[in-house]
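Task 17 of the worksheet. Students: predict the tertiary structure of the chain below and write it out as C-alpha cells. Keep your answer in the requested format; marks are given for formatting as well as content.
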Amino acid sequence: MVRGKSGIRGASSVRAAQDAPPGGPAPRRSSPPAGNWLFKGGDGRLTAYACTPHGLVRWTEAAAPHTGWTGPDAFEVEGWTGAAAMAQSREGYVHFVGLRAAQDGSGRPEIIVATQFQPGRPLTDWHSLGAPGLRGGPTGDRLAGPPRIAVNQRSGSTHVLVSMRHGGVLRRSRNAEGAWGGWKQVAPEPYGGDVAPLMSAGGPLELLALGPAGADRWVGVGQGRFQLADRIPTPVVPGTPVLCETGPRRVTYFWRYPGDGSLVAWRAGHQGAPGGLMGLGGAGGKGAPGVVRSVIGGYDCTVLAQTGAEGDIELTAYVTENEGYGTWWASLGGHGAYAPQVAVDAAGRIVVAAFDADGALICTRQDTTQQGLVFGPWEAA
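Model answer:
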C-alpha cells in the first residue's frame, strides 16, 4: 500500500473486465435500499439485498465447498411502498426497516421491522411500529424521507429513525430484551430529507441530517437526550451521505459535493486530532459511495467505491483517517452498473458489488495472489 496521491498502488495494479456481463435479471426491477445493503454474516458468507415494488430480494453466497451465489430470493410484503434500510449487529444479525400502507385503510404509511439471524435463512415476521408521531405533536405530519435503522454494537438494541416534515427527527428504540418504547424526538428542527445514523462500538447514537444551511450532526448525550454537536455549513447532495466507524468511538462521514460531484469526508476533532472537511476527488460521480475498512498490505485502510463520471465503477483506498495524503481513483469497469457497495469476504478479499442495468447483482473480487489491488472480472450472481 502506497501513501500519497496513489491511494492504490498504481494504475496497472487495478484491473477488471471493462463490461459487466448481462446476467440474469432479477424477478422484478430492483433498486438499492437506503445505506448499506451488503453484509458479511456470522458464518462469513456475504448477503446482498435490494428493494422491488413488492418487497425485498436477497442474494446469498453459497456455503462451502460451493462457489457463487444463491438467489434472488423474494420476500414480498403486502402494501409495500418500496422504501427500506438495514443495519447489522456484531453477531451478524441484519435488522430491516421498511414502509407499507397502513392496514387500517387510512392510506398513511406505517413503519415495519424484521430481522434475519443467519445468512440464507428466512426473515422474521414483519412487526408494525405504526405511523410515526409524537403525542401532542403536529397532526397529519408526514415523513420527509425513508426510515433508517441503527444497531447498538454492544447491547444489540436497535433504533429506528425518521425525519418528519414538521415534527423534526423522531426515534423509536427496542432494547436488548425486545421491548419497543414510544416515539421520541431526537431533533426538534424539521429536515427536508434523509437522515444517516450510526452507533459506533461503545459510542453514542449519532446522525447526520440535511437542512437548508448544510449538514447537522446530532449526538446522543444520555438519558434519551440528543444535542446538536456540529453544524457543517456546506452543501450536500441529498441521498449521498454514508457513515463509517474509523476509530474507537470515531465516525467519519462521507457525502457528495454538488459543485462538481466530488466526494468529501468530514470528521469531528478528537483528543487533539484535527477534524473538518477533506476532499476525496472522484468528481463527476453519482450517488452514495460504498465504504468499508480492510487491511491492505498490513495497513488499516478505508476503501470507497463509486459510480464514476464515465459510468464505470471506481475504487480508491487510503490509510484510515489519512485523507490528507490524497486519494487516487481507479476504474474497475462494470460500465453502466450503479449503487456499488464494498465488503470483505471470509477469505479477507475485498468484494465490490453493484446492480447492472437490469437490476441484477454483479460483483468483482480482489485477487490476493497479485501485488497491489487487483480485481477479477465482473460476475453475475
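Marker's comment: The first strand starts at residue 38 and ends at 40. The chain has a mean pLDDT of 88.
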